[in-house]
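The protein record filed below.
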Amino acid sequence: MNIRYSAAVRRDDWLHVLKNADLANIFHSPEYFDIQQSLGHELLYSCCYIDDEPVAVIVATLNRFGYYQDWVEVGTKSGGCPVMIDKYDQHPEADTLKNAMIEAFARQHLKGRRFLFYPCFHLRACILEAPEWNCVTQFDDTAFLDLHADEDELFRGMGVKCRNAVRYAGRHAVTARVANTREYFELFYACYKAVREKKQTQYISRDELRAKFDAFTQQGLADLWVAFREGQPLAYAFIWKYKQTINFVYGSSHENGWRYKPNNLIQWELIRSYKQEGYRVYNMWGIRNMNLSAGKDASVQTNIEGYGKFKLSFGPELRSLRRYVRV
């Protein structure tokens, strides 16, 4: 094999990789990084060519502001890097190929920098575990719901309490639908921010999240779902879409409406809707808190959070997830 790496961004090559990679997600896409750059962040890019065919990419953000200012972020809980076309992702030498690419990227872009690096799901051992990179390893699981099953089977696959909550919401006139308007975005963001401030956790700025809402909804890559009762919004789910996968990226709900179980109903309704549209996988993201806290040993797998237990109630499959952090 003749292997080379290039930092020159050739969009057609980038898209070739994503088209032919089963693990490709919106967080690997040019559309996502277009927004990141428009906000003022810096794109870090590498494409691997084997015998002149583009076969893998690592795409990252050097954050110029926000709560990860001056950090490099590579990958997400939705999918890591490198993302590789299927014929090489399943190759006997896949781990060697991926680690060689990660090392080349790291030596070019990560030396002397703080970073978060999520490797791709199929990588069994990552070179960033080597002492020279001085990384902490964090553990989580990402929840994936297979949408191939018929609707009745999906419903039966949910926990008893979850099924009962969906029925309860329906009996109390809770409904859910897509509401891709600025009005509902502003209501969602106000709720999201209030919840984060109450929990004293970090959150994305309004301008950044609105830029992604505007761009992705216009391009057909996202939907804002809203649960209502008697015309009043109770809960929100911001879903991002790419190829045949949907992603639960942001959600929030009003505490005074919890008794009507809107979060259960909104999830069930969006599962039904996207299944009917032909989507095959629902990536519900992680089930644990991976934030770095002072004095906390981040290498120890933490307990499943309440939101993680909520996701598990829908019966997803779990895939082990690691990220490497250098502070």
User: Anything to note?
Assistant: The CA atoms of residues 107 and 158 lie 45 Å apart. The longest strand covers residues 136-146. Confidence is low (pLDDT under 50) at residues 293-300.
